[in-house]
Inverse folding.
């Protein structure tokens, strides 16, 4: 499932901090036969609309607004199968763009000392390469050279979630916490190497809606450690297979 967490790199400050605690819950509900990874994933696929429906998605366009510290930041994210993406967000009436064309990443930021377009460094390029696949890492993970493992249970709020650990070839990690009843993600924790530092991003997912047969969260909450305020992405619309042009992912000439 594309949970729209790709926007994290662009729309919030990545926190340089030790990985959040992923300790397993001490109290798990009794189960005569614990679920295997394949069984959990099968329920997850059904919960997000089914593998067949996701495999028919070639493009996706999301539009929404980030709410942070009394500011509203309009944003749009575009994806193309298998791993191209572009995110735009408007700050002080100017548009910032970051994109991945399937092999390299670039940025155009009028607020920076190098307004661009410029190529991004290895850490951000790896992040985009890991996060830009249109359906997310758990769909077809074997064909993507990803390591996926069931990593026990952990309590998130009042739910004893199933934890699925994803290891990317880059060394980046992503943990998904699946609701034990709906089997949709309620939280994700990503551990990425950015600027030579281990950076942790935590996202909470809410307000899942049926969009062309796919179940997608329309509310995402980004929490940082320390005193930083919670930032919220409210998704306004998601459109699939709308004919996105491949050219928008390519870095333009300076």
């Amino acid at each position: 499932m594309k949970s729209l967490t790709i926007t994290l790199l662009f729309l919030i400050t990545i926190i340089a901090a030790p990985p959040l605690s992923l300790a397993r819950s001490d109290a798990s509900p009794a189960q005569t036969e614990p679920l295997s990874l394949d069984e959990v994933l099968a329920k997850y696929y059904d919960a997000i609309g089914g593998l067949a429906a996701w495999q028919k998605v070639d493009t996706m366009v999301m539009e929404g607004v980030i709410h942070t510290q009394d500011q509203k930041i309009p944003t749009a994210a575009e994806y193309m199968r298998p791993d191209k993406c572009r995110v735009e967000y408007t700050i002080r009436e100017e548009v910032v763009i970051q994109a991945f064309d399937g092999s390299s990443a670039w940025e155009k930021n009028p607020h920076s000392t190098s307004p661009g377009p410029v190529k991004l460094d290895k850490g951000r390029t790896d992040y985009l390469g890991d996060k830009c696949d249109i359906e997310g890492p758990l769909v077809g993970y074997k064909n993507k050279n990803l390591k996926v493992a069931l990593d026990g249970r952990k309590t998130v709020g009042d739910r004893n979630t199933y934890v699925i650990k994803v290891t990317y070839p880059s060394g980046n990690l992503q943990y998904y916490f699946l609701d034990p009843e709906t089997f949709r993600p309620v939280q994700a924790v990503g551990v990425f190497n950015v600027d030579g530092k281990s950076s942790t991003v935590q996202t909470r997912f809410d307000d899942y809606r049926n969009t062309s047969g796919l179940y997608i969260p329309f509310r995402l909450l980004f929490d940082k450690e320390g005193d930083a305020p919670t930032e919220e992405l409210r998704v306004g619309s998601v459109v699939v297979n709308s004919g996105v042009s491949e050219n928008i992912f390519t870095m333009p000439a300076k």
The chain has four helices and 14 strands. The longest helix spans residues 37-47. The chain has a mean pLDDT of 87.
